[in-house]
Amino acid sequence: xxxxxxxxxxxxxxxxxxxxxxxxxxxxxxxxxxxxxxxxxxxxxxxxxxxxxxxxxxxxxxxxxxxxxxxxxxxxxxxxxxxxxxxxxxxxxxxxxxxxxxxxxxxxxxxxxxxxxxxxxxxxxxxxxxxxxxxxxxxxxxxxxxxxxxxxxxxxxxxxxxxxxxxxxxxxxxxxxxxxxxxxxxxxxxxxxxxxxxxxxxxxxxxxxxxxxxxxxxxxxxxxxxxxxxxxxxxxxxxxxxxxxxxxxxxxxxxxxxxxxxxxx
Length: 265
Known about the structure:
The chain is an alpha/beta fold and 265 residues long. It folds into 2 domains: 2-97, Translation factors (Elongation Factor Tu (Ef-tu), domain 3, Beta Barrel), CATH 2.40.30; 110-220, Nucleotide-binding domain of ferredoxin-NADP reductase (FNR) module (Rossmann fold, 3-Layer(aba) Sandwich). The protein has 8 helices and 16 strands. The chain has helices spanning 26-31, 77-82, 123-131, 152-157, 176-182, 184-187, 199-212, 247-250, and strands at 2-15, 18-24, 37-40, 54-57, 60-62, 67-73, 90-97, 110-115, 136-142, 160-165, 172-173, 192-196, 216-219, 235-237, 244-246, 253-255. The strands form 3 sheets. Strands 4-3-7-1-2-6-5 form a 7-stranded antiparallel sheet. A 7-stranded mixed sheet has the order 11-10-9-8-12-13-16, with helices on both faces. Strands 14-15 form a two-stranded antiparallel sheet. Helix 4 (152-157) links the parallel strand 9 and strand 10. The relative contact order is 0.15.
């Protein structure tokens, strides 16, 4: 784990309420794996307001340039403060943290399944898989084209890119699970699936993966105050012997079969 003052080179709104933040941190970039996260201090002046850092998954990493990027949604005071950073500023950054995705060693097809801002930790993975020679089928869902986070790097890394919007303003008209059922023939050819999004979406996707017989990994979101497993504020229910696991250290990526997800919308 590294703590550094990472220089801001980009912090712009890419969709209403969604921002892309790009930082320079060669040390973190060298070590960061898809699915891991960093803790960012969001305050620009008063270091106690907000007091807690915000956990953000690595959206993409360019090791050659020493750059790390984060895609975040403005939800509260912390993320609102984060939007105030401009190029040239520095962000107190701690990472990489947590357990990331395990990319299948084969070069067979993989599925990327993301609902809403759940796409954030999956772009880096898709790019890495593409570079390793995997066929990448991407399934991306959102409420409308205004919130469909079709990152250009993700589109380029995808062999086939499937989009779904609830209102039909882009791609398939319906939710992402309905899209997956429509494209089950593509999903069934995959060697693994990687999933992130609202818990009901992940629960339905995990169930569908089980039906077609492919393993899957899920990335969980949680309030992570310390990021190192000390505060126990980010536990989730699992099928492991102790019933609960810490998202920040035992995750945020878990085998889809061992996490007990909330299936209610």
